[in-house]
Amino acid sequence: MRAALSGRRVIVTGAAGGIGAAAVTVFLEAEAQVAGLFHATPPPDDLAGRCQWIPCDARDRRSVGTAFERATSALGGLDVLVHAVGSWRPSTPESLSDDEFDLVLDTNLRSTVLANQAAFERMRAGGGQIVNLGSSEGVRGNPLAPHYAMAKAGVHAWTRSAAAAWGRFGVTVNALAPAVGTPGAERLWAHLGDDRTAAFKERLRTSMPLRGELGDPETDLGPVLVFLAGPGARFMTGQLIAVDGGLQMLGA
Fold first, then answer.
1. Which of 1, 8, 188, 193 has the fewest CB atoms lying closer than 10 Å?
2. Angle, to 10 degrees, between the axis of helix 146-166 and the axis of helix 111-123?
3. Range from 16-25, 169-178, 202-211 carrying the lowest mean pLDDT
4. Number of other residues whose CB lies within 10 A of the CB of residue 156
5. SS3 177
6. Number of Cβ within a 10 Å radius of residue 121
7. Nearest-CA neighbor of 118 among 28, 33, 58, 41?
8. Of the listed 148, 153, 233, 244, which one is catalytic?
9. Residue 16 CA neighbour count, 13 Å, CB half
10. Higher model confidence: residue 183 or residue 99?
11. pLDDT confidence of 185, banded at 50, 70, 90?
12. How many angstroms separate the CA atoms of 222 and 149, rounded?
């Protein structure tokens, strides 16, 4: 992927951990100019000096606007947004509280809308590419995290809506549904406990056609991120693309 994104100006939100940090890593390897937005988690040591780092609460419109202004000023413009802010939290349909609902909807869905709007404002004159993070849970639901599934279904619908509205400006909007190792997966294992986690991983081994285990954010998801941020994806928009070893076959 060396030089695949040379000269491209990229903002990654949620850039300090999980898929966001993986995106920063692969974009830097592809020779893009990168600004990483972060909130509670500080930038990792191995990436701290390699790109622009800007604090941002992606749930707050004013904070998002300020961060995007700083980032695009530092980069000299904006070609690509990867919105990797998100958080998985457990609950059940019958016990879901107002606070749980608000936190997960704001973190996953509201942040997507705000970041996409800020990116479009800076792309509408010259085009650009937006990549959101969806989830197969937003397709099939999840009784262990109904608010997360609902939020991700909203991200999918928002992605299609924005893609339909912004295509005439040369702005593409796509979403990924990955199954890779992240802090969210670690929270799921902790919630399930050892025995249920072992059973869950055994089901993965029998139901995921490729490899039978969660993928790696850099080596498995990273090349797809680079593709969607590059010229090869310029005629794709409004798509939800599963990168999950065949666990969720969305075209079926």
1. 193
2. 20
3. 202-211
4. 20
5. strand
6. 14
7. 58
8. 148
9. 15
10. 99
11. confident
12. 23
Tell me the CA distances in angstroms from 37 to 120, 142, 198, 222, one per residue in order: 17, 29, 35, 18
pTM recorded for the entire structure: 0.93
Q: Tens digit of pLDDT for each residue in 2-42?
A: 779 999 999 999 999 999 999 999 999 999 999 999 998 89
Looking at residue 190, its pLDDT comes to 82
Q: Helix axis angle, 61-75 relative to 111-123, nearest 10°?
A: 40
> Cα–Cα distance between 53 and 135 in angstroms, integer?
26
Active site residue 212: no
Q: At what angle do helices 146-166 and 98-105 cross, to 10 degrees?
A: 30
What 3-state class would DSSP assign to 244? coil
Read off the amino acid at residue 113. Answer: V
DSSP state for residue 218 in the 8-state scheme: I
What is the per-residue pLDDT across 50-105, written as a single tens digit (0 to 9) for each? 999 999 999 999 999 999 999 999 999 999 999 999 999 999 999 999 999 999 99
- Beta-sheet pairing, 171-178 with 33-38: unpaired
Residue 159 phi/psi, 5° resolution? -60, -45
Tokens of 147: 């608010």
105 touches 45 (CB < 8 A): no
Q: Which residue has the tokens 């990273």?
A: 222
